[in-house]
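queue> pop job 88
queue> type: inverse folding (structure -> sequence)
queue> payload:
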């Protein structure tokens, strides 16, 4: 009888171990899906990325103001036409950076992650993957958020998702205000 009970206990432990292993795999997959969703830029409302044609139409309809620095370095090729943004709120930008998952790729302490650090970024020269340089001002950061593959920072892969479908100019201004505060 004790031999049968031992086999039953052994089988029960084996089933329990398999169940725990299966639960661990499911939990890991759920974490992976959550991370992937945060990095793709999709939100919970089901909003998907706009088509390139729609983004181009929106960009051409955005009002512009004169260049903030007046120098051609503000944008490679001298094409400096900053977007007129509302005043940003750094606290709102910090909360937005967390909720959108920006801080998973961009550090705020100078350490290198998947994307460039935001610490000390604003107002400084940035070397781009094409060998050119630009100043990290409102125009550059706005473009980096709304059309991230247009000007990729040297040493980083062009993997940042496009946030033009999720963010309006106020939210971009809030993110820029937060990045400015990280000097």
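queue> result:
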């Amino acid at each position: 009888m004790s031999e049968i009970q031992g086999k039953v206990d052994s089988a029960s432990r084996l089933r329990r171990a398999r169940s725990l292993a299966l639960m661990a795999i499911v939990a890991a997959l759920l974490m992976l899906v959550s991370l992937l969703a945060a990095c793709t830029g999709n939100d919970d409302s089901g909003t998907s990325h706009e088509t390139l044609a729609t983004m181009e139409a929106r960009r051409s309809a955005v009002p512009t103001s004169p260049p903030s620095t007046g120098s051609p370095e503000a944008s490679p090729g001298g094409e400096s036409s900053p977007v007129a943004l509302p005043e940003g709120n750094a606290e709102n930008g910090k909360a937005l950076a967390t909720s959108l998952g920006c801080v998973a790729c961009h550090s705020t302490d100078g350490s290198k992650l998947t994307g460039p650090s935001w610490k000390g970024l604003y107002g400084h020269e940035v070397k781009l993957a094409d060998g050119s340089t630009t100043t990290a001002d409102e125009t550059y950061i706005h473009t980096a958020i709304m059309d991230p593959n247009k000007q990729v920072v040297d040493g980083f892969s062009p993997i940042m998702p496009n946030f033009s479908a999720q963010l309006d100019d106020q939210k971009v201004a809030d993110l820029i205000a937060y990045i400015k505060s990280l000097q």
